[in-house]
Description:
Blueprint: H1 3-26, E1 32-35, E2 44-53, E3 56-65, E4 76-84, H2 89-112, H3 119-159, E5 165-175, H4 181-194, E6 198-202, E7 207-214, H5 215-225, E8 233-244, H6 247-253, E9 259-262, H7 265-274, H8 278-285, H9 295-298, E10 303-309, H10 315-328, E11 332-339, E12 345-353, H11 355-367, E13 369-372, E14 378-380, E15 384-391, H12 403-406, H13 416-439
Parallel strand pairs: 6-9
Antiparallel strand pairs: 1-2, 2-3, 3-4, 5-7, 5-8, 6-7, 10-12, 10-15, 11-12, 13-14
Helix pairs in contact: 2-3, 7-8
Amino acid sequence: MPLAEEEDVNELLDRRRAEIEVISAAFASEEAWVELSAIDSAPRIYRRFIAKEEEQCACFLVKLALPDEYPDCSLIVESVQVETGATLSRFLKAAHSAAASLRQLMQQAALVAIGGEAIFSVFSVAQDWLDDHWLSHFTHKSHTWTETANSANTLYSKATAPCNQLILERRFIYSHHIISKTKRSDIIDLARSQLRLTGCMKIGWPGILFIEGSTIDCQAFYDIIRRWQWQYLVERGREQETVECDKTELKARRRFKDFTQVDDMSLLAEACRNVGLDSLFRSCLNLTVADDQQSIEVHEPLYGALIHVDHMNDAKTYRKWLRNACEQRDVALLIKNCCTTNGRLIIFVALVGHKSNLIGVLKRWRTTKVDVDSRNRPCFERMMTVLVEGSLPPRRSLDRLDWERTNSDAQLRLKSAEALAIVESIGGQVWRERLRSILGA
C-alpha cells in the first residue's frame, strides 16, 4: 500500500476510534454500547431510545455499522427494533410503523453528514423526532386502527353480523419470494406474538402467506408487512365467516391451530387440503394479474451470479461476512468447495435474488475488507471471478433447494458431480458449463 494511502487509512481509523470513545463516555452502558463484529471489520454501535405515551413505554433499539471507509462514506443504520412490554396491540402496531420511519430518517441524516463524524448528529435527529413527532404518530396510528375497527364492525354489522358477532377472515398473500431469515422471523413474531393469527408461511420462490384471524388483525398484519421491502407483494384472495364474539368459538372455527412454516408448495397445498381450504388455495394460485400495473414485476426473472473465489485465508470469518451481507439485502447465498480433476480445491459462490439487491452485494463485496493477507492483515478481495451473471431461467427445482441447510458449514464440501448438479438446478446448463470449465470435469 502506498504511504499516502496508508496514512489516509490510519487517519480514518483514528477518527472512528475517537468517535467511539466519545460515545462510550457520553452514555450509560444501558443507553449505548459498542460491539466488534465477528462477521466483518465494521464495529456496531447500539443506542436505546425511549418514547412514552401515557403509561406505555416503547424502547427502540438502533444498530449502526461503521464501514472501513467511514467517515468518508455514510454509516449504515442496520436496524431499528422495537423493545416494548406494552400489551395493547394498537400500541405495538404504531411502534413498529414508527421504527420504519425512524430508520429511514436516520439513514437520510447519515447521508447528509458524509465526510464528518455523524453518530451524534444521527442520534440527535432520532431523539428530536421522538420528542416532537412520536406523540402525534402514536395518536394518528391509534386513531387509524380505531377507525378501521369501527368501520369494519359497522360495515359487517349492517351487512350480516349482529353486534354480538365478529368476522373471522382468511387471507392469501402472494410474494415473489421469502428467503430472508430476518423477514421470516419478523413475520412469525408478528403473527404469533403481536397479533392473534394462525395459518402458514411458505418460504422460497414464490413466498406465500396464508393467515386467518379477526378481520382487524388480518388487516393490521397486511398493513405492517407491505411497508417492508418486497420485490412484489399482493393479496390474492380472502374469505370471511361470522362467528359468535366468544374466544372459545373463534378458536374452534379456525382451520389452523398455529402459524407454521413450510418450504415446499406441495406441503402448503397439503396443509390447506387437510383443513378444507383446497378450493381457496387453488383459486388464489390460478389468479392472474395481467391487468395489474405491477404485472411486469411478477414475471421479472430472478437474477443470479456464479463466482469463483481463488482462496479464503480466514474462511470462517469470510463466510460469515458473506452470509451477513446477503441477509441484509435479501439475497440467497450458496458457498461450496470441491476439487478439480488434478486435486486443486475450488471455492465457488452462487447468489440469487432481485437484480438491484444482488448487484449491491457484489459492489460491497469488492469494496470491503473481507479476508486477511499472508500477514494476517485485513484485505480486499482481488481474486474473485464472476463466471456468469444475469437473469435466471424459470426453474421449479430452485424452490426445492434447502438453501439454509445446504449452505451450512457442515455441507461445504461437494464432489464434482454434485457441484455441477446443484449449479445447474439454479442457473441451468450455462452455469453448469461455466463451472465445468474450471473444474476440468
